[in-house]
Amino acid sequence: MKIYISTFIYVFCVLIANYTATNFIPFPIFGAVSVGTLIFGITFTQRDRIHEKGKPFVYAVIFFTAILNLLFSIYWKIDSRIIIASFTSIIISEVTDTEIYHKLLHEKWIYRVTKSNAVSVPIDSTMFNLIAFIGVFSNLQIVGLIFGEIVVKYIISILSAINISSSKQIAK
């Protein structure tokens, strides 16, 4: 049952993150961070939780979510640059994370999450912001967004993993 709850949380957070991708909040040092970033940080750990069901299930969830995100984005009339950025970064970063995470199944939960996120979070943040905001914001603003989002997503995903780990919901 927890796998399906994690799957629902993952899908829901991706959709809401995309919907709020152009809403920014001031963030010290970096200038601003998208509201979607605060939400999207949760997705990495939720996706990691569904690995118990196997890699084919994880890939099915990733691709289903990307397509659903695309459809909802069109329905919500989200700018095409956000749709393209979101679809591309989800597919590439989530597949990368899944492959790394799967190779680390012999490691403890927190190490699997930390190591896979160390690669996928920068990929996601860099790809999304470059595709979505090049020509919209200055290069300096984009660099600030990328760096800020990496920090925020990583903190949220690690806190989420620690919370899950400490509640002993994940074995090993």
Structural overview:
The protein has 172 residues and is mainly α. It has a single domain, classed as Arp2/3 complex 21 kDa subunit ARPC3 (Orthogonal Bundle). It is 76% helix and 5% strand. Strands 1-2 form a two-stranded antiparallel ribbon. β1 (24-27) and β2 form a beta hairpin. α1 runs parallel beside α3 (55-75), α3 (55-75) runs antiparallel to α4 and α4 runs antiparallel to α5 (109-133). The protein is globular and about 45 Å long. The relative contact order is 0.16. The mean pLDDT is 88.
Detail the topology: elements first, then pairings.
Elements: H1 2-19, E1 24-27, E2 31-34, H2 35-49, H3 55-75, H4 80-103, H5 109-133, H6 139-166
Antiparallel strand pairs: 1-2
Helix pairs in contact: 1-2, 1-3, 2-5, 2-6, 3-4, 4-5, 5-6
Defining key terms:
Arp2/3 complex 21 kDa subunit ARPC3, 6 helices, about 170 residues, mainly alpha, two-stranded antiparallel ribbon
Strand order of the largest sheet: 1-2
What would CATH call the class?
A: Mainly Alpha
User: How much β-strand is present in the residues?
Assistant: under 5%
Largest sheet: 2 strands, antiparallel
Q: Assign an overall shape.
A: globular
Per DSSP, the total helix count is: 6
- The rounded distance between the terminal residues' Cα atoms is 19 Å
Give a quick rundown of the structure.
The chain is mostly helical and 172 residues long. 76% of the residues lie in helices and 5% in strands. It has a two-stranded antiparallel ribbon with strand order 1-2.
